[in-house]
Structures are given as C-alpha cells and as structure tokens.
C-alpha cells in the first residue's frame, strides 16, 4: 500500500492485516477505529467485504485492478496504487468536497485484502484493457 493515506489509516489497515493473518480475528475489534478514521464509508465498506463483493483482477503481466460490485448492483473499478475509484461518490465526497478519505468501494478493497476476503480473477491483457477502457467510455 502506498503512503498517500494518512499514517493513522495506514497503521490501522496494517493492524487489521496482522490480526487476520495471525488469528482470523473478528473485525468487531476494529470497528470503532474504522468508523473514527474513515467515517461514513466504514460500515458500508464492511458490508461489501461481508458480501465478498471485491475481486482482484490480474493480467499475465502482473497489472492489477479491483472490481467492486456496489450495493446498487453496479460494478466499479478501483485502483489501490493511487487510491482511486470510478464511482460518483469518490469524485464528489472524496475529491471535490474532501469529506472522506476514501469511498466505500476503495475502503472495501483495502479491508478485503487485509482480511483475506478478496476474490481473484485472472484475465488476459486484452480483457484487462477492455475493463479499463469500459470505465473510460462510461465516463465520457
């Protein structure tokens, strides 16, 4: 994970990862801190993780992106390397208004990785390109 998130957020995600690797610790231990740091994104993100809505999409070259099936049924593409999501909430509440650190989708990506709950899908380079270009077409 890159260090563009505040240090306290990075540290909490590291603690969650460590706890789940060592003991399959319950997320309830961290729920208060998650809500404090990530605000209103925390509970919906945990719901997405519980529903196993996060898929890591990997190509043979090693390029990765994440797809998150949102609560509305729409599929969003997230990039953990730059903390970006294609959902409208990310653009509005995170980038424009600076009300949240992350949207629920990108937070679900980080939590699912930390908790070992991320699904994985291997695709060809062409399929990954299509996934990435489909998002650009939706926006334009």
UniProtKB/TrEMBL annotation:
InterPro entries: Znf_SWIM (IPR007527)
KW Repressor (keyword) present: no
GO MF: zinc ion binding
Record key words, sorted: Metal-binding, Zinc, Zinc-finger
SWIM-type domain: residues covered: 76-114
Tree of life domain: Eukaryota
Gene Ontology CC: Shu complex
GO biological process, one term: double-strand break repair via homologous recombination
Stored PROSITE patterns: ZF_SWIM
Keyword Zinc-finger: yes
Protein name: ZSWM7 protein
Classification of source organism: Eukaryota, Metazoa, Chordata, Craniata, Vertebrata
């Amino acid at each position: 994970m890159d260090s563009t998130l505040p240090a306290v957020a990075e540290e909490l995600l590291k603690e969650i990862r460590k706890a789940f690797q060592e003991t399959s610790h319950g997320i309830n231990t961290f729920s208060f801190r998650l809500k404090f740091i990530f605000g209103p994104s925390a509970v919906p993100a945990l719901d997405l993780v519980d529903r196993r809505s996060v898929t890591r999409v990997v190509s043979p070259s090693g390029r990765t992106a994440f797809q998150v099936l949102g609560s509305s049924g729409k599929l969003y593409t997230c990039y953990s390397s730059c903390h970006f999501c294609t959902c409208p909430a990310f653009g509005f509440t995170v980038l424009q208004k600076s009300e949240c650190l992350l949207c629920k989708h990108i937070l679900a990506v980080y939590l699912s990785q930390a908790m070992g709950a991320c699904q994985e899908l291997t695709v060809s380079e062409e399929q990954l390109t299509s996934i990435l270009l489909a998002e650009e077409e939706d926006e334009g």
